[in-house]
Predict the 3D structure of the following.
Amino acid sequence: MLDQKLVRNELEFVAERQRIRNVEIDQTRLSELETQRKAAQKRSEDLQATRNSRSKAIGQAKGKGEDVQPLLDEVAQLGGQLKEAETELNSVQEELSSIMLSMPNLAHESVPPGKDEEDNIEVRKVGEPRAYDFDVKDHIDLGERNAALDFETASKITGSRFAIMHGEMAQLHRALVQFMLDTHTLEHGYTEVNVPHIVNRDSLKGTGQLPKFEEDLFKLVAGEDVSDKAKQEANKDYYLIPTAEVPVTNIVRDSISSSDELPIKLTCHSVCFRSEAGSYGRDTRGLIRQHQFEKVEMVQIVTPDQSWQALEDMTSHAENILKKLDLPYRVVILCGGDIGFSAAKTYDIEVWLPGQDAYREISSVSNCTDFQARRMQARFRSEASGKPELVHTLNGSGLAVGRTLIAVLENYQQADGSVAVPDVLVPYMRGKQTILTS
RNA sequence: GGAGAGUUGGCAGAGUGGUCGAAUGCGGCAGUCUUGAAAACUGUUGACGGGUUAAACCGUCCGGGGGUUCGAAUCCCUCACUCUCCGCCA
C-alpha cells in the first residue's frame, strides 16, 4: 500500500509515476473521496468529542449526587447522529481503502517504461550457451528415459500441470534444493527457515496477493462450513502459498524490530501452489509451468537506506547459484508493464534453455520498499528518531528448483541421452557423475 | 473432539461500568555521581489519524468483529489464538 499522505498531497505525481506501469489513477474520484472523508471524519470526531465531555460530566454529577436527568436529556439524540456520521465515514473509507489496496507500488526511477516482457532491458549476460554436435533434446524428452519425468501418471493422480519425478530425477531435484540452501546459509549469510504452506488472508494481504489476485491462488475448503461470516471476519480463510515469500515475509507482520536486529536475511525451501488461471495454453508441456513446484526463496527485511544495495546483493546471490552450476544466464530489469504489484523494482534472471533455444525466467528479485511493510505494519525503531518506521522488504527466488532442474538437464545433456551431473552437485548425488545412463 | 484458564503499551504484569491510554517493574532515552564504566539515584518514555511553523488541542486503539449503556479494558454475544488437563493421532 502506498502512503495515504503521499497519494493525498502529491496525487499528480503518483498518477504520473503509475503511468510507467500503464496504470491509470482516477484522480477525480480520489480527490472527491478525500474531501468527503475529511468532512465526515470531522463531523464524526466532533460528535464523539461532545459525547465524551457530556458523559464525563454525567459521571462527575453523579459522583456529587446531583440530578443527572437534564444532562441525560441533553445527549438523548446524540447517539443517532453519531451512528449516522460513522456510517457515512465508514462507507467513504471503505471505498478509499479498496482503491488504496488495489494500487500497485510506485516504480523506482530506474524502471524503464514498457508494455510487457518484450520491453524488459538486459543488464548483463553471463556465460556462453554451449555448442552441441548433436541434436539437443528438451527436458521432456530427456526425462522419458526410465520415466524419470512422468506427466501421464501425474495427470491420472491429480490432473494437468502436475509431474512425478522418479529415481535419479527426484534425487537430482533434492540435490538442487540442498545445494541452494547450503550456499545461501554458508556463503551468503542467510538463516534457513521452514514455514507453513497454508496461510490466512491477512498474510496474503500483507504481501499484496490479496485482495487483487485471488484467482491465482488455491483456496482451501475445510470439511465444515467455510461461508461462516464470523470466521471470515477473523480471517480464518486458508490458502495454499503461491511462494514462500508470503509466510516468510509475514514473520515480521505487526511487529517492531529493534534496529540492531536488521537486516533479517532468511532463506526457505517450500512447495509453491499456483492456479495458473489465465495462462491456459502457455507452457502446457513439461515442467516449466506447474500448479505445484518447489522454490528456494530469499527474503530480506532491511532499513530503508539499505534496500537498494540489498536488491543488488540478492540478485548476485541468485546469480551465484547459476555460476556455481555453470549455467549461462542473463539478467534483465523488468519494465513498468511487467513489474509485479508490490515491487518498486525487479530483476529477473533468465537461464539459457537449449531445448527451447531461449532464455527463460528462473528467478525474480524484487525490492518492495515500504509497500508490503505498510500493509503488514512491519516496523523497526529508528535510532535517529526513536520512533517506529516502516522497514523495507525484499524477496527473490534463489532459485526456482523445477526450472533449475530443467536447465541442468538441457544444458548438461550428452549425445547418448544421459545427463552429466554438475560438479557442485556431485557430493549431493553421493558421488554420482552421470544420470539417466540407460 | 471434551473441560477449564487466559489474550492489556518494546517486554513482564495490575486493573470487574465514570477524569483509565491504563498502576508497577524491566527495557529505552536524558541527567546526577565517576578519570571512564557499572551500580545507585532523579527525570522521561505507547501507537495511529486529524490539527499546528512548532505546540496546544481533538479523535481512535486494552486479541478480531458485533451488542448493551449517557459512558466499556471492565457487562453480553461471536470468532480466532495461547496455556493446562482428558481423548485421538504421525
Q: What stands out?
A: Chain A has a mean pLDDT of 91. The longest helix of chain A spans residues 27-63. Residues 4, 38, 41-42, 44-46, 48-49, 51-52, 54-60, 62-63, 68, 71-72, 74-76, 78-79, 228-236, 256, 258, 377, 381, 386-388 of chain A lie near RNA strand B (CB under 10 Å from a C1').
